[in-house]
Amino acid sequence: MKDKITMEKLVTFCKEYGFIYQGSEIYGGLANTWDYGPLGSRLKNNLKDAWRKRFIQERKNSFELDSSILMHPRVWEASGHIDSFSDPLIDCKECKTRHRVDKLITEFDSTVVADKMSPKKMIEYINSHKIPCPKCNKTHFTDIREFNLMFETYRGVTENNKSIIYLRPENAQGEYVNYLNVLRTMRTKIPFSVGQIGKAFRNEITPGNFTFRTIEFEQMEYQTFCKKGNDEELYKFYKEYAKKFYLDLGIPEQKLKYHDHDKLAHYAKAACDIFYEFPWGFDEINGTHNRTDYDLKRHQEYSGVSHEYLDLETNEKYIPYIIESTYGVDRSLLALLHNAYEEEKLENETRYVLHLHPFLAPYKLGILPLIKKQHSKKANELYESLSKHFMCSYDESGSIGKRYRRNDAAGTPYCLTVDDETINNNTVTIRDRDTMKQTVLKIDEIIPYIEERIKF
Ligand code: GAP
Question: Measuring from atom 19 of ligand 1, which residue has the nearest CA?
Fold first, then answer.
């Protein structure tokens, strides 16, 4: 049975093996920012490729977009973010720390649905239950203030209200403002989908549980434009498709659960998150939202440009509904890392191993000359030719056992050993990361053997 993996262990492991480092570490770090190292960035790219394959490549009428992070400020008025994208915050008058009020309440009593309460009710609840400050244990708070999560910046040289622009807090608006462009230039019809992968920024003030909640993060968002009446069926489809995506990437069913929203955003008809079982409990990694025709209606109103769709078969005109399927790249990756990590107790040692889906693994094949002096020339030749087909690593330092361990910790699904048999008989030994079993192959069998096993 696997030991319980704490976040502390995972953070240390990720740093040690080049997956994730603290942001700006040599300057003491910048809270809630993290840098992906060589293995982490490969893993992240592979996750994005898996998403691209499932959502863009394998779905008909599906298009990828790469829109700007900086958008016209009116976009955020139309979307409602300027008015209502905020968290209720409270300050402790004693130790001056700042807290999200809904979190303070749910951490005190997890059965209370705090985000349904009005600010007045929240403060009454805190006072009547004497909820203490998590830092200093006193109950002496300020009033609640709504704190907008959008990052502001200024365009040009003058810092005044007219020059304010925002770093996007979600990718979705990029898809919505390009709905007409994609419809026309791709000569497509409803239903069609537009997805994109990109950075989003939120001025989160609560501590983040490693990469779970950060101020800069990536989203893979996917919007399906459809006719009212088909929305419920598509919503159900994407809710299930999202779960299948995680299952296919190797997360077991029991570590995932749906969380249907009781409290809906003003524009939403239905919303459901997928929660993963993190060390602190189940928490959100994905969301499926039925956003109705709210977004396109708002952009029509604020831009003055018609967003009506004309169905050429029926001559009907309407504003499409949107079903959104959104994935946090960093959160999904954290769930995948947490799920894959194992400290396996062997007879005389502990083996740190990442049982990642081979498609996700940063390197697919580790190439190891058994004895540096005798086998490295042949191993280098193999590296040159095989790395044209998939990511390979090359390691000739230390004992073969140590090199296997380093590859296990990197999640490399296969290691290839070059020895005398390779030089004399053109065969190599391939070792499987999970079973540690070895198979002898002819050199020309290596590529099909690996390619077959790293598919997604
Ligand atoms: N367009 C809809 C939207 O942005 P959301 O639930 O606010 O919905 C979507 O965000 C996903 O983005 C979440 O499921 C989560 O995976 C990720 N996400 C949101 N805030 C985040 C943060 N501060 N840090 C890391 N990931 C975050």
Answer: 328
